[in-house]
Amino acid sequence: MSPFAPEAGPTTAILLPPRENFSLESAGAISLVVRRFAGLAPTTFVMGTRRAQTFAGIPYVPVGGFLDIVRTLRRRRPDVMEVHQQPRLALALALLFRGRRVLLFIHNDPLAMRGLKTRWGRRLALRYLHRVVCVSTYLRARFMTGLDGEAPAVLANPLTLSELPATAGPRTSILFVGRMTADKAPDIFVAACARALPDLPGWSARMIGGDRFGPDSPETAYVADIRARAAAAGIAFAGPRPHEDVLAAMAEAGIVVVPSRWAEPFGLTALEAMACGAALVTTGQGGIAEVAGDAALYVPPDDAAALAAALIALGRDPDKRAALSAAGLARAQQFDTGVIGQTLFALRAAPALR
């Protein structure tokens, strides 16, 4: 048994990025992941913005700036501090709390993060932190750009499979879920569906998402343009919805499309689609291919014609959809929170690198 398994009872503080809302209605990918990790042990608590409304059952401590964070940690004295997306904060805590285990979790390209853009900054992180943890091997390779020696650990984002909704309906819809930003390529989804739907009688298409997570997402010019294009193509546009609504839509969809044109750090939407039994079509950019493996149909990015052809072929072939669904469900088992959690406990308990 790992000394950092729940039975051993170490106190763990998980620190969210300052803009991350920790609530069911407006959680982003990081909050959803943290909520799953926090539920693994009763001695874990989450620290984050004062604006957030916590997930039920997860101890949550609202904090302000750096001094408030330090005061809270000194008062609560956690054995482990897990800092998400804040390299400079993680390094400061490691220097202030000598002997405590401070882990930095990286969810986005480290070469674009303050504190990690330079090789010197990344070396400092590896030298002074208990562990640097990347959510994909793609991000680890980015972190190690220009470096050699000990590399960060890789810990995939988890998904609690027992919490997913049951599949329902005829599953003859095509679904896009994600932020309505150019990186996610909703324009390619709209263009592809406009071509494919006339050749798929009985099928429909739907889009869920906004410029950002939560009900207060603004109607940017880009969102308004995608909304108008979707309406012209006969695609339902639901806007941002709570995560439980997103999962319910995935459980009803026959095909989920993740057409990202940028290198996704991980690919949580792809994982959720597979776990909900949908056939996944994706570009495989960045970490998506690590998540999907051979359980997806791949198309080139920025190629609406290729995506349309894939949707038509898949929509007309129920056996192929069933095969992809079965492969996705099997692959999703590797990412269940209980499985990923054992690796997390091992990282917490492992000796420091230096």
What's the arrangement of secondary structure elements?
Elements: E1 12-15, H1 29-38, E2 44-48, E3 60-62, H2 66-76, E4 80-84, H3 87-96, E5 101-106, H4 119-128, E6 131-134, H5 137-143, E7 153-154, E8 173-177, H6 186-196, E9 204-208, H7 221-233, E10 236-237, H8 243-252, E11 255-258, H9 268-275, E12 279-282, H10 288-292, E13 297-298, H11 304-315, H12 318-332, H13 337-349
Parallel strand pairs: 1-2, 1-4, 2-3, 4-5, 5-6, 6-7, 8-9, 8-11, 9-10, 11-12, 12-13
Key terms:
14% strand, 2 domains, Rossmann fold, alpha/beta, 6-stranded parallel beta sheet, 7-stranded parallel beta sheet, 354 residues
- CATH topology name of the largest domain, in short, is Rossmann fold
Would you report the number of β strands? 13
Please count the helical segments: 13
N- to C-terminal distance: 24 Å
General shape: elongated
Quick one: CATH class of the largest domain?
Alpha Beta
Number of domains: 2
Strand content: 5-15%
If you average the pLDDT, what whole number results? 94
CATH superfamily of the largest domain: Glycogen Phosphorylase B
Please describe the biggest sheet, giving its number of strands, its sense, and whether it closes into a barrel. 7 strands, parallel
Strand ordering within the main sheet: 3-2-1-4-5-6-7
Order of helices and strands: EHEEHEHEHEHEEHEHEHEHEHEHHH
